[in-house]
């Protein structure tokens, strides 16, 4: 249905963009969730490993570091959840209000939908429009819930890894070389598992966010419909926050790894194995993108180039 809609309206760049924006978000959310289901065993292993590491510091002063990072995780995820909910509402509410106003007050026909597509049935039949609208709204809410779930899992794992990297640095002078290397090996293996599970998600995250932000930016510039502009602004802001969360998480792992590397060099050359591993391996990466803040600049440059291209086609 979406393919026929795009084929029929391919000359109308604005109409196709309005169709693609929510499609990209919902389809990639499903892809992310499927990847998590496929790798569910590895994810449970990582969560179990994190709990074991956290339990070792439960009754010590250093446990406050873990609590600080977990508190940051909760605050950012609440912000992300709020913007996801606002994004879905911005797609659902305007056409609902428009339909009620035009159909019941002005007594004219109006059948706006949250998402534009073709249908294999007649939506003008009795209650077909209302049922279709309800299904699209439920799917949007479901997609937003899955979206927040995946991002919460990723960011929570990253923040716990950062907490333990910071603990390694703070306890390096107090623990033996064997204990430090063993502790670091566990974190090293945990990040290796994260790369195995999340590398495809990271690649899709950055690639799809590039497309999503470009399409939303184009719609904000080109459309005169205030409801579409509002929805695209909120949706685009949600995408930017998500981009920053993924990049910030990866950047903090890189930064803490580099700090441990510097400390290892200053303390003892016997820590060389930790230093080399930390410097070159402690990072989250995918096929084309590393999870770090410079990637944000790269993505935004590509978004601006896409907006310029779409404007030239419109």
Automatic annotation (TrEMBL):
The lineage of its organism: Eukaryota, Metazoa, Ecdysozoa, Arthropoda, Hexapoda. The chain crosses the membrane at residues 20-38, 83-106, 133-162, 197-220, 287-310. One of its GO terms (biological process) is signal transduction. It is found in: Membrane. The keyword Membrane applies. GO terms for molecular function: odorant binding; olfactory receptor activity. It comes from the Eukaryota. This is Odorant receptor. Its main location: membrane. The keyword Membrane applies. PANTHER family: ODORANT RECEPTOR, ODORANT RECEPTOR 47A-RELATED. Keywords: Membrane, Olfaction, Receptor, Sensory transduction, Transducer, Transmembrane, Transmembrane helix. Pfam families: 7tm_6. It is a multi-pass membrane protein. One of its GO terms (cellular component) is plasma membrane.
